[in-house]
Amino acid sequence: MENRRPPSPSLPPRRYRALWLSDVHLGYAGSRADDLGEFLAVVEAEVIYLVGDILDLWALQRSAFWSAAHTRVVTLLLDKLQAGTRLVYVVGNHDAPLRRDTGALAGLGLVSEAEHVTADGRRLWIVHGDRYDALMACGRLQHVVGNFLYDLLMYLNRHVHAWRRRFGFGHWSLAAFLKRKVPNARRHIEKFEDLVAHDAGSRGYDGVICGHIHHPGVRHIDGVLYANTGDWVENCTALVEHADGCLELLHWSDRQAALGGLAPSATAPRRDAA
Ligand SMILES: [Mn+2]
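ok -> structure tokens follow
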């Protein structure tokens, strides 16, 4: 039924020091698992951090959805694990029942937070981001507009995207557009970014990597690096670390064209000591 896109130009596998993915929402009909499968097939990393909401247990309880593309994402990740990639699963809110803070399951890589040290020595804190919900006036877009409207918006988002792709236009996300245009949404995102960055700074980290709000971005906030991996429902984005410690946000819909990224010097620690 769905229009299959032309086969991607053969891309050589890209090797990264680290890869961060979040908000894949496997089990939710709006997950772009097929795009993520294509992406995972051509990237390699020494360590992959799954930054929460990889499985959407809430959506599965509401109305189960699963397809071969969802299974493929799981098997591709397990293949990488088998081939020697380290896999760390930082649990989010939609997969919260998997959350274990200590004990044997930490050995499985199921944790509520993690730390990553970049090649250039920066200590980065990795959390999903839902721990700030209580401090926010309201939740993310889904909670603001409700499940039904969110599903409808994601449905329109997918079809606008497919239509644009078919007629040769570049990637454009209706959801991302609305988030930029609606002042409340914009303020909401900025408040989240400030909260997370300041918390990471007060804990002595050089930066933080999170997800949750489905809004990708990499920037410095008062000297703390803030990176949001985005998601695979609205945006199809991933964060990677190159061998030299440079962090880059990749937008898969534009076939690995960088959305934003900072040169190593630009992401170097602003402080002399962590
Ligand atoms: Mn979340």
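Residues 15-267 form a domain with the Purple Acid Phosphatase; chain A, domain 2 fold (CATH 3.60.21.10).
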